[in-house]
Amino acid sequence: MSMPKGHKAEKGYATVTDFPGALDYRAIAEKMSDDGDQMNHSTARNVFLRAMKKLAQSMHELYGLNVDENNLARTAKDPDFQQGIYEAMIDMRAESAQENQQNG
Amino acid sequence: MADTIENFFKSVGKTELLSREQEIELSKLIETGDRRARDRMIRANLRLAISIAKQFQNKGCSMEDLIQESSLGLIKAVDRFDWRRGFKFSTYACWWIKQSVRQHVASHSSPFKLPTYAKNMMHKIQQAVNDYREEFGQQPTIPEIADALGVSIETVQTILDCSASCVSIDSSPRAHDKGEVKKTIGDMIPDGAESVESLLDKQKIMPMIRQALGSLTPREEKILRLRFGIYEDIDENEFQLTSEQHEELFGSIAEEVSR
Question: How close B190 gets to chain A, by Cα (Å)?
């Protein structure tokens, strides 16, 4: 379904090219289906955005921002927010790898 | 200082040069320990020392120092000259003077001292670069230089790093700033370290994100990882809070609530 006429995303959309090794929604749906969780690309997108909304809620609460559905949905789709979460996950992975190395 | 040098040049110019016979005669006297003859021989050849010192101008050393060094080289030559070999004194002295001045320039033209080997290699590299440019019309790469000189790439790289000119971090990049506060080069070098704000933000946000990620269902987490391309080595405990982080996060929230 195409976007309504006149709609323009404020900061564009995050795309798979923003994250090295990232999969698009179709590839994610295929991978999940292969692993036994049958889904199509729309479901993959909805689940991803739901996860991002959960993360957005924590951020909104931390900074005292409005936590209504529309605001959370906007933050969840924001490419800068997604980039921030991606970087945080990368940092956490590095930390975890370092800890594992130290613990032998 | 300029006047002093000027006077020195004038007095040196007045000294008469020695003929071949006079040189031999003075050399014989010097061998017997005649100090006057030695002084005369030195004074008569100071013009040679000055002319060689002038060849090394603009190499990072003052003219006064160069003349002093060339004079020391001249004294050494006077003390070691052997008239029996049949050469003119100037032919012999020239090498001693040049050697003395070169050594001074080498050890004083740069803020840090490089070993002779490094200096020689620097000179060879420069020569190889010039030859290559002349032959092929372009700048050689480091492996090409190393290959031409028969040394390792690391050696060439190290020597080239050492040959970079030094600039004081406290000097101003614009020499003609007038009436305004001068910025030094040190002020303009970017600080590669993370800012304090960013570090504090990270400290506050990271545990929060970790906690939020921990609240995702396995399905959501898997899709999130696939979307971000972080899936090759899934560690189930990666996003779990450690007891310290748990304490840090919930301790600070409890503190905020109590306020």
Answer: 23
